[in-house]
Amino acid sequence: MAGKKTIVIVDDHALFREGLKAIICRNPSYEVVGEAARGDEALETARTLKPHLVLVDISLPDQNGIDLTQQLRKSLPRTRVMIVSMHSKVDYIVNAFRAGATGFVTKESAPERLLQAIDLVLKGEYFMDSAVAQTVVQKLAGIASDQRQLRDPGYEALTAREQEILALLAEGQALKAIGDRLCISPKTVENHRTSIMRKLGLHTHFELIRYAAKVGIIDIDRWKE
């Protein structure tokens, strides 16, 4: 149907794929157009269908989902990839985002959480399951939270508004949510984010998170919620 966001599911368990489809069908704006049980099959299916989103499990019979994510992003740069997996080890999650994934949800998450994640990822935002977010941030920072410095020259060069938006972005807030909170448009938030990234010499969302964690401006407790 015209206007629907198309999704491909990649998981080697047929029953789990059926469960995902049942959840996704709750939102009439989504349509599952394909599925695969192996990485090679998934790549061929995605290249043919060019979906808006591919949901990928990390453990596949012929390869791991992180490598598949990298291949998908290289072949289909406009297609988003989100990991849906039972694995919640920090290294898996960090490597998945570095490979190009823009969302990570554990299989234990509630259906509503999955739909929320899909919605944000399809809007171009990042999503990280709250159950693992705090430890991932600390891993990306590369240092213990009690060793962080509170300020640096780059941070001080930001305007007060940019400092505020930096913290909200690093906490995982979507552009619209930040705009609603600050009473500005999502486009204005986007402009501020561009300025922040330029001033700090950052290129990706997770470089932004790593920077925010290093200078100690992330409220770590928020990642537990």
List keywords for this structure.
225 residues, alpha/beta, Rossmann fold, six-stranded parallel β-sheet, globular, disordered C terminus
Topology:
Layout: E1 5-10, H1 14-24, E2 30-36, H2 39-49, E3 53-56, H3 65-75, E4 80-85, H4 90-99, E5 103-106, H5 111-122, E6 127-128, H6 130-141, H7 153-156, H8 160-170, H9 175-182, H10 186-200, H11 205-214
Parallel strand pairs: 1-2, 1-3, 3-4, 4-5, 5-6
- CATH homologous superfamily caption of the largest domain: Response regulator
The main β sheet shows up as: 6 strands, parallel
Ends apart, CA distance between termini: 37 Å
Give the count of structural domains: 2
As residue ranges, the low-confidence spans are 143-150, 219-225
Strand content: 5-15%
The name of the CATH topology of the largest domain is: Rossmann fold
Question: Could you say which overall geometry the principal axes of the C-alpha atoms support?
Answer: globular
The CATH architecture of the largest domain comes to 3-Layer(aba) Sandwich
Helix share of residues? 40-55%
Mean pLDDT score: 83
| CATH class value of the largest domain | Alpha Beta
| Tally of DSSP helical segments | 11
Strands side by side in the biggest sheet: 2-1-3-4-5-6
User: Topology as H/E string?
Assistant: EHEHEHEHEHEHHHHHH
- What is the radius of gyration computed over CA atoms, rounded to a whole number of angstroms? 18 Å
The overall strand count is: 6
